[in-house]
Amino acid sequence: MSRRLNRYIIFGAVFLISLALLVTDVQSKTAAIPHGEVALKASPVQEEAERYLSRYLMQYHFRRVPINDSLSQEVLSRFLDQLDETRSYFLASQVESFQKEIGNSIDDEFLAGKVDAGFMVYGTFLNQAKQKMRFMIDLLDTARFDFSVSETFNLKSEDIAWPSDQAELQDRWRKEAKYQILNLKYSGEEPDGEPREVLVKRYKNRLSLLEQQNDEDAFRAFNYALTTSFDPHTNYFSPLDYENFQIDMSHSFEGIGAKLQNENEYTVVNEVIPGGPAFRGDLLKKGDRIIGVGQGTKGNVVDIVGWRVNDVVRIIRGKKGSVVRLKILPVSQGNKGPAKIIQIVRDEVKLEEQSAQKEIIITNGRKIGVITVPAFYLDFEGQKQKKPDYSSTSRDVRKILVELKKEGVEGIVLDLRNNGGGALEEAVKLTGLFIPEGPVVQIKNSHGGMTVLRDKEVDVAYDGPLAVLVNRYSASASEILAAAIQDYGRGVVIGGRTFGKGTVQSILKINRPFNFFYKKNDDLGQVKLTIAKFYRVSGESTQNLGVTPDIKIPSFIDTEVVGEDAYPSSLQWDVVSATDHLKTGWLSGDDIKVLNEKYHERVDKDSLYVRYLEDLDLLSSFRKKEFISLYEPDFKVEMDRIQGFDAQWNEEDDPDILLTQSAAVVADMADLSGKSMAEREVAPLQVNGK
Predict the structure, then answer these.
(1) What is the mean pLDDT of residues 513-525?
(2) Can you provide one Gene Ontology molecular function annotated for this UniProt record (predicted)?
(3) Which residue among 21, 437, 537, 664 is least crowded, i.e. fewest CB within 10 A of its CB?
(4) CATH top-level class for 355-612+657-687?
(5) Which positions are catalytic?
């Protein structure tokens, strides 16, 4: 037997003995914890996966988080918020008991591969949730509700304390039932039956789902709280979860073209796939909560709150050309009421609609080209095989630039709104179409090492007036491009502050280091880890703060709930050394000041834009509401106001205000100094990390 094998066996034996001692210690801490009527227990494979998960997080995650009591408290707090976001399940006494009994032991369990504490909390949650459903069913069957009394329902219940006793908890349930009845009555939905009957049916369905919860649900929920305590983009995938994670709803089957994920009890839209039916209809947004699914134009809408995301995906899938109706809580309204029903015709993703598209806008007597880039796409296989016509964002945009120049455009708007990123290589190459050779982005790994990605093309495909249009959904690769254009002074960035996702993830398969110790070959799953951060050439991170536009145009997107800084565990913004780059000399601070002045002079006289701002104020006031009246006449007035607002700005013939204003800014750029900015003599300025 070799020395190396001897060392492995000795090390393995020590590891297992140490682990056994740790397990014994943890079990002694949690043995006295009472379990409720639900007694869930982790399987040996789950416990083994948990042990390795802790090692992967400690060794490979960008953020070096100590596994200690502080992490225990954070995980527990996150888990409780995750399970009971509305403060309508747990009592304050139960939360206090959790904090006292297991608040400092979750870290020890994690290292030992035990999840007893997490399972106990989840079991208590299931008991409380089933108790609530039974109460609500009985209440709706027997109680008489008085909608003429003046009382309110808390829309921001996540900010209040847990109820002190059962009476307070049940009073919250009673008010929630009244709110649901009024919401069904005035939200514009056409329920299949009387509101009470519809709600009873939904609560019975939800109770049935709760009865079917198992150890996999508990394990998934607890590990979501644990991994997202490191950062919001780190997750553990069981073998089944990973299989579903790989399913792209736009390519693997005929559906709506959206990726979904579970957050608390809700199914949330994580991504709307460019080119898919949801993208083309522009009715579904990242962050929308799907709370019901109906088949066909008249089929009953099934309540899916509390469902596993795999089951939700299954009923949304369907034959091409068929209709699915989704009941959503729009992210634009802060995921509060009223719920909306949207209708989508299932279809395949049309690749040509994923591609960059062009149009021309005439404004201020000037012809402005618009290039819309919905994603940074690249046919990796075609590139590898050196196919002459392989699909790539930078190649497609280069062709469009040639066409637009032939058509005599006097400026370009590069529209990156709702572009969540994609191939980093393409973001670098696309930036290179507008700047001379030079660095585009810096990447810092978990060990502090820096890599600089550069545009290596000396030629510039387009050197005229340029604006990059962004919004809160512009993320990752989009932010890299916008930041580079801004740092080089090559163009003006217009719109809203971007998402702020300046991190890099990698998916690692959990492997046993000493397979000869194990007779079984159970798959332990995968872990998606944040391993690096992006930095601008100026040295500033794009993480958390995103890119701040030079000319700010407000939008309907709720920045309180959309964006990296909306996640409590997001990595922080920081700065590294700048990398040498050449300023193009295109835009100075004085130029941007003039463009802002011209923009404000114009919009102040634009009646449509003034109306746009007024409606933004209306929506903002609704988002900030903490309470909604349960007095029926007042509730109806509130719902009518929101529905009127929604109808007004969802008409197909409404102009794209952000795009038209961006085109006008580019026309202003061409007007500066009485001639096109492309005609100016440009003197590049060397920047040496300052």
Answers:
(1) 61
(2) serine-type peptidase activity
(3) 21
(4) alpha beta
(5) 476, 487, 501
